[in-house]
Amino acid sequence: MAEITAAMVKELREQTGAGMMDCKKALNETNGNMEEAVEVLRKNGQAKAVKKEGRIAAEGICRIASKGDTVAAVVEVNSETDFVAKNEQFQQFVEAVAKQAVDSSAADMDAFLSEAWIEDGSKTVQEALIEKIAVIGEKLSIRRFERVEAAHGCVVSYVHGGGRIGVIVEADTNVVNDAVKEALTNLAMQVAALSPKYIATDDVSEEYKAHEKEIIAAQIAQDPKMAGKPEKVIEGAIVGRLNKELKEVCLLEQVYVKAEDGKQTVAQYIAQVAKDNGADLSIKRFVRFETGEGLEKKNEDFAAEVAKQMGM
Fold first, then answer.
1. Does a structural domain hold residue 180?
2. CA distance 21 to 31
3. d(CA 51, CA 15)
4. Using one digit for the tens of pLDDT, what is the confidence trace for 206-232?
């Protein structure tokens, strides 16, 4: 049996919003497995706000580089501390990495790190990274990149929170003007704020739907108000809750954040922009990077570290 620490209980509580004792019980049931404990809390209806992307743990920033209206690339580069993430030299390096990515033909990170460095072709990206680590004196990591090129339209980008979140939206459109690009930028801001997982419900995998239905069914089974209800009623409730969730995770189904009536969906907003500009406009793809998502951050006691270095 794994030891269940206070830190583990605290982390699970932060992720789910469940009570402390419920979190401890779930961790005991799952032998300390955090993901399984989240599932237990969800099935028991105790998880109030699961952060599906994982808590933000690593430091660093995202940057985006563009070439005209058709090509953009987003990168995430991590550092050990927030102090370095705010360092001008580090930020300039990340901007150079983004420029590297926008011209890259690499299919994966290994290939990307092996490319000739954009600022000095005599060295690779990996060698440039190692040199920067030596200069800054802290471990750095080029974690990921994604390049987007529009074949029949345009791309727009948006960076939030000084680089905490980077978003690229690609659209198929026969009209590329300021109004269309402004609308797409608004959608990029929506993606940054509400973190959808899919463009439309048609894009949602059957595996995802089946998994969520299982969670919802377990929640309903523990709802006293649903006790003794006919199977048809229960099935209807499951489908209803699933459809409500899909509206939250699918961009086009979400309520547009700037909707004046508070009801207009993103799909309706896009249709209105298309009509106003005589455009054939649709959202093809979006990419959203959030710094540190899925990574675990060290709990550092800087006072203790300084005392240790001073021999206190």
1. no
2. 15
3. 5
4. 888 888 888 888 888 888 878 878 888
Q: For the whole model, what pTM was predicted?
A: 0.73
Residue that has been written with the tokens 């006691």 in this structure: 301
- Max alpha carbon distance in the chain (Å)? 73
Helix (H) or strand (E) holding 121: strand 120-124
Give the domain CATH number at 29. 1.10.8.10
Question: For the segment 250-287, what is each residue's pLDDT rounded down to a tens digit?
Answer: 999 999 999 988 899 999 999 999 999 999 999 999 99
Q: Are 142 and 171 in contact (CB under 8 A)?
A: no
Residue 27 within a domain = yes
Q: Please state, in angstroms and as integers, the Cα–Cα distance from residue 270 to each residue in 159, 194, 266, 292, 308, following that order.
A: 21, 17, 6, 31, 58
- The answer to whether residue 283 sits within a structural domain is no
Give backbone dihedrals phi and psi of 73, rounded to 5 degrees, phi first: -140, 140
Full residue range of the structural domain in which residue 24 is found: 6-43
**Which residues face 75 on adjacent strands?**
63, 145
The answer to whether residue 33 sits within a structural domain is yes
